[in-house]
Amino acid sequence: MTTEELKAAIYASLHHIAPEADPASLDPDLDMRDQLDIDSMDFLNYVLGLNQATGVEIPERDYPKLASINDATAYLGAHVAVAA
Q1: Cα separation of 46 and 11, whole Å?
Q2: Is 58 left (phi over 0), alpha (psi -120 to 50) or beta?
Q3: How far apart are alpha carbons 82 and 41 in whole angstroms?
Q4: What is the rounded average pLDDT of the residues 59-77?
Q5: Vertex 84: Cα angle to 15 and 53 (nearest 5)
Q6: What residue ranges do the domains of the chain occupy?
Q7: Would you state the torsion angle of the CA atoms of residues 12, 14, 16, 19, taken in this order, to the nearest 10 degrees?
Q8: What is the pTM of this model?
Q9: Which CATH class, in words, describes the domain spanning 3-79?
Q10: Maximum Cα–Cα distance across the chain
Q11: What's the pLDDT at 17?
Q12: Are 23 and 15 in contact (CB under 8 A)?
């Protein structure tokens, strides 16, 4: 997957749990839970969406590594084959 494909998967998963959110308005360096005001169940659904889209198994201990869009992109990129 390319970095763009990873970001698309992240935004798609976020759109599924917060359809009213505008991805362009999100700061990619800030915690998306705070920006979107989502709860722990929504975050779990976000993680499950990432798993389905990328095939990456994400253990609960790694959830903090998915806090921001940039964090999630880096984490997923380290766990899937990323093409430039």
Answers
A1: 10
A2: beta
A3: 29
A4: 96
A5: 30
A6: 3-79
A7: -110
A8: 0.88
A9: mainly alpha
A10: 34
A11: 93
A12: yes
